[in-house]
From TrEMBL:
Family: Belongs to the EPSP synthase family.
Primary site of residence: cytoplasm
Protein name: 3-phosphoshikimate 1-carboxyvinyltransferase
Compartments (UniProt record): Cytoplasm
Residues that bind 3-phosphoshikimate: 22-23, 27, 144-146, 172, 291, 318
Function summary: Catalyzes the transfer of the enolpyruvyl moiety of phosphoenolpyruvate (PEP) to the 5-hydroxyl of shikimate-3-phosphate (S3P) to produce enolpyruvyl shikimate-3-phosphate and inorganic phosphate.
Length: 411
């Protein structure tokens, strides 16, 4: 299937309600399974959250989490800690290429019973629950923060809690902080200093309702649209200033592209293109916010700004190799772009010459589809395999319609 995107009209003050953060939702689902007194509001309706929710209720001996990285990593630790579990945990063919060895090694150090079913270091995994896990573990922190979040999420349910020693540089750090803040919200005490995290056990929690903030990574596509417009303004809900999500840094990053964020009193934000961009080059280290790299690269391309992004080593092991995917697709549009294993360098060039429809391949990566869609404001864009967006944002195309971009789906 292909989606043809076309700018149809300019909607002045569109309002878009975005589904809950999938990162917050998937943490809260694991915590709710461990501590049933938690009620969750504004849960994400993304495939990744639906698949985790089903997996937690499943009695099937094989649990398939498709493309959902957080579900894969969080459930690995969850099933280890659940005494009576005996499951094969698997995922899509891409998931079977995404490494999990460091997490398995850490859990085995704690006493877990996990076997690789096919390739050493990768899903599928055969997991059997154990009676007691050790209260100390070390893990390298530079490959994926999800491994560490997985350990932290089960930590309060362990009899003696858990002391985690992080080795080396810490990647995607705000996601660790998100996990810790959610633990704190349910009453867990922790200490995080330097390379050491200590999490105390918790036996009972007070019944409580936690409301998930909407997804900031999903908001990034609206920031890009506004940046690429001449004077668009969009209101998004439900967002707050003191977000748990690192991607909330978009509000600051997009000031570089002339976009101003206003936090309204009613949990909405209004983002507006305030001024033309006088910037010719941007340099950003995205080690803390890998999921907005594609959006920023495409915005820079659309605005004709040179873009140098560093801290991108994790992009190679996400839904696709995002560095190679960006290079291929931006080159197709005429960009001069170089990538290394951890950075991207795009030279400014003009998109004014593009008039015919450009087709973007998505490589089973929702963020490839959504990051390139805003270019429809500048020239007609077609997206291959468009429904990949449902991994994080099922209503993406209907929400684009609200701001004046129509989608035609062709088989
Ligand atoms: O913990 C999380 O919710 C996430 C952590 C990040 O992964 P890495 O830590 O692997 O970079 C991010 O890219 C992913 O989309 C969600
Ligand atoms: C990398 C992502 O997700 P995950 O690792 O959870 O599959 C993402 O949503 O961009």
């Amino acid at each position: 299937m292909i989606a043809q995107l076309k700018k149809i009209n300019t909607v002045k003050n569109a309002v878009v309600a975005i589904t809950g953060s999938k990162s917050e939702s998937n943490r809260l689902l694991i915590l709710q399974a461990l501590f049933p007194d938690i009620a969750i509001e504004n849960l994400s309706n993304s495939d990744d959250t639906v698949v985790l929710s089903k997996a937690l209720k499943s009695t099937n001996p094989v649990v398939d989490i498709h493309h959902a990285g957080t579900a894969m990593r969080f459930l690995t630790a969850y099933f280890v800690a659940k005494k009576d579990s005996n499951v094969v945990l698997t995922g899509s063919s891409r998931m079977q290429e995404r490494p999990i060895g460091l997490l398995v090694q850490a859990l085995r150090e704690m006493g877990a019973n996990i076997e690789y079913q096919e390739n050493e270091g990768f899903p599928p995994l055969q997991i059997k629950g154990v009676e007691k896990l050790k209260n100390k573990v070390t893990i390298a922190a530079g490959v994926s923060s999800q491994y560490i979040s997985a350990l932290m999420l089960i930590a309060p349910s362990l009899k003696e809690g858990l002391k985690i020693e992080l080795i080396g540089d810490i990647t995607s750090r705000p996601y660790l902080e998100m996990t810790l803040k959610l633990l704190k919200e349910i009453g867990v005490t922790y200490h995080f200093q330097g390379q050491n995290i200590t999490i105390s056990p918790l036996t009972k929690i007070a019944p409580q309702t936690i409301t998930v903030e909407s997804d900031w990574s999903s908001a990034s596509y609206f920031y890009s649209l506004v940046a690429l417009s001449s004077n668009m303004s969009v209101t998004l809900s439900a967002y707050k200033k003191d977000s748990l999500q690192g991607d909330a840094s978009l509000a600051t990053v997009y000031e570089n592209f002339g976009v101003i964020t206003q936090f309204n009193g009613d949990n909405t934000i209004t983002i507006t293109k305030e001024k033309e961009v006088d910037l010719t080059e941007i340099h950003l280290n995205l080690i803390n916010t890998p999921d907005i790299a594609q959006t920023i690269a495409v915005t820079s391309f659309g605005l004709g700004i040179s873009c140098n992004l560093t801290g991108l080593h994790t992009l190679k092991i996400k839904e696709t190799d995002r560095l190679e995917a960006l290079k291929t697709e931006l080159s197709k549009l005429g960009a001069s772009i170089n990538v290394t294993n951890k950075s991207l360098h795009l030279k400014a060039n003009s998109v004014a010459k593009i008039s015919e429809v450009k087709t973007i391949e998505t490589y089973q990566d929702h963020r490839m589809a959504m990051a390139f869609a805003p270019l429809a404001l500048l020239f007609p864009v077609a997206i291959e395999d468009p429904m990949v967006v449902s991994k994080s944002y099922p209503e993406f195309y209907s929400d684009l319609e609200k701001i004046g971009i129509s989608t035609t789906f062709l088989e």
